[in-house]
Amino acid sequence: MELHKRRGAIATGVALLIVAALVLLCLPIGWTTRILLWVGGAAVLGVLIVRAVRPFRFRIGPDGLTFGSGGATRSVPWDDVQAVVLDQPAPGAAGGDRPSPRLLLAPAGGADVGLPTTTSSTAYDGGCAVLLDLGDVVESPDQVAEALTRYAGDRFVDARPSRGTDAVDLDFTVVLRGYDPAAVDEVIRMGREALSSPPGDQRRVTAAGRIRDSRFPTVLRGYDRWQVDEFLDGLAAELATPVDAPDGTGTGTES
Question: Is CB count within 10 Å lower at the N or C end of the chain?
């Protein structure tokens, strides 16, 4: 599968430069200032154009990965890859839109992939190299994931938040080794069904106990264990929370 670089930056840059030029014409400033601002805007546009038209290559194939830009291309066979991770960075501290997914490469022991392996991921314990920001290519993350599943096999880790199943709609991160998703989904489904029972119903008490006693097998490409444990602790606490009777006397027996 050959990926293709987005070229929309040129059109966007030209449009912004035209708008900025019209605004500058209307501002009460001297011509020297206008010219300096126009030159600055043209320089920014030039950078965008250079970045957009630089040679770009990224290929996912049966023999491995081929990537490069600016004329330098490198091929990495699958034997040199420990894991390739489709990672979803968290939003910044200020919130806002979620960043685009990115593709990370964890080299096999001693393999030189020509990139610094200084990036971390929740889906992989070792250092990773950033291969690609998927916001820069035409193909969708799902298309890239399909190609990696086909060619990379067990080396591929989809660490984007899970969309959930038919009854469990939670954003657990899928990691290299985590809890078995089917087992986790079954326990969560049971707990949610028990929440619909009346206060004090034995189903709620039983469900809370089952959740606390749950032990899940660890599998490849499972749910993040810390996220699951935190969610289940909250669900069990909600099920076990006593609810006062309407008259405020509680649920105790009369003496």
Answer: C
Alpha-carbon span 38 to 56, nearest angstrom: 30
Q: How far is CA 173 from CA 52, 94, 103, 164, 192, in A?
A: 33, 21, 15, 10, 20
Integer-rounded Cα Rg, in Å, for the chain is 26
For residue 10, CA distances in Å to 1, 140, 249 come to: 25, 20, 71
**Rounded Cα–Cα distance for residues 158 and 145 (Å):** 7
* 110: Cβ contacts below 8 Å, ≥ 6 apart: none
- Going by C-alpha positions, the residue among 155, 173, 153 that lies closest to residue 163 is 173
Residue whose structure tokens are 């809890």:
179
Distance CA 188, CA 211 (A): 8
Sign of the dihedral defined by the CA atoms of residues 221, 226, 229, 233, in that order: negative
**Does residue 129 carry a pLDDT above 50?**
yes
Report how far residue 237's alpha carbon sits from residue 208's, in angstroms, rounded to the nearest whole number.
7
Residue 245: CB atoms within 10 Å:
12
How far apart (Å, rounded) are the C-alpha atoms in residues 168 and 52?
41
The one-character DSSP state at 254 is P
